[in-house]
From TrEMBL:
Taxonomic classification: Archaea, Methanobacteriati, Methanobacteriota, Archaeoglobi, Archaeoglobales
Source species of the chain: Geoglobus acetivorans
Entry-linked SUPFAM superfamilies: Metallo-hydrolase/oxidoreductase
PANTHER family: METALLO-BETA-LACTAMASE DOMAIN-CONTAINING, METALLO-BETA-LACTAMASE DOMAIN-CONTAINING PROTEIN
CDD domains: yflN-like_MBL-fold (cd07721)
InterPro entries linked to this entry: Metallo-B-lactamas, NDM-1-like, RibonucZ/Hydroxyglut_hydro
Pfam name, any one: Lactamase_B
Domain of life: Archaea
Descriptive protein name: MBL fold metallo-hydrolase
Residue stretches making up the Metallo-beta-lactamase domain: 9-194
Length: 213
């Protein structure tokens, strides 16, 4: 089961793994109220990566439900405040500014690869950030910010697959490799961090037009 929740900041999902319930991503700070409304109990929080719009409420939600936060070890420095992500360009600078107005609480995370989920595979897809992961179950995957789904302007109900902005990517060539990894898993129903879920076909790669560097 993958259920999308109505949180602020990014798409957050509740998953069931052999009777255990995990929250995947937590949105921007301030989502605890929403979490209390729709989550009964929680066995853990899994972060696809440490960006503010995904990890922002991890501290408050994990405290309330007394559960651990799991992320790839390469993301731990950012969660613990020992590292800082680069955001370039005008939008990037604006995001940084907004984040500083309401800073994210520091998080002591556990290694997601040691969590040993039964039904989901944790797949390391570095590039957007060093420790970005996706959660794969059969032909479904929660992909974080590996790709985003944008509404086509003026055409109702149609969506376009977009790559994550290179201004926010940690390593563009690693990112392209991870996209190829995703391409090899198609057709795949994707649950992105931003935008709607769609079934991704192999041909999506051609439409992306990503630059390698
Ligand atoms: Zn991100
Ligand atoms: Zn995001």
């Amino acid at each position: 089961m993958i259920r999308k929740l109505n949180f602020k900041g990014c798409n957050c999902y509740l998953i069931d793994d052999s009777g255990k319930t995990y929250l995947v991503d937590t949105g921007t700070p301030g989502n605890l109220k929403r979490a209390k409304k729709c989550i009964g109990n929680l066995d853990g929080i899994i972060l696809t990566h440490a960006h503010y719009d995904h990890a922002g409420s991890a501290f408050e939600i994990s405290e309330f439900f007394s559960c651990e936060v799991y992320a790839h070890i390469a993301e731990h420095p950012y969660l613990e405040g020992r590292g800082e992500f680069q955001f370039n360009g005008f939008v990037g600078r604006m995001i940084k500014r907004l984040e500083s107005l309401r800073p994210m609480k520091l998080i002591q995370a556990e290694d997601v690869e040691k969590l040993r989920l039964r039904e989901f595979d944790v797949v390391h897809v570095p590039g957007h950030t060093p420790g970005s992961i996706m959660l794969l179950k059969g032909n479904e995957a929660i992909v974080g910010d590996l790709i985003r789904l944008r509404k086509k302007r003026f055409i109702a109900g149609e969506y376009v697959v977009r790559p994550s902005s290179r201004n926010f990517n940690w390593n563009q060539s690693e990112y392209v490799k991870s996209l190829e990894k995703l391409g090899n898993l198609t057709p795949l129903k994707v649950y992105p961090g931003h935008g709607v879920s769609i079934t991704l076909e192999r041909s999506f790669m051609e439409g992306l037009g990503v630059r390698r560097r």
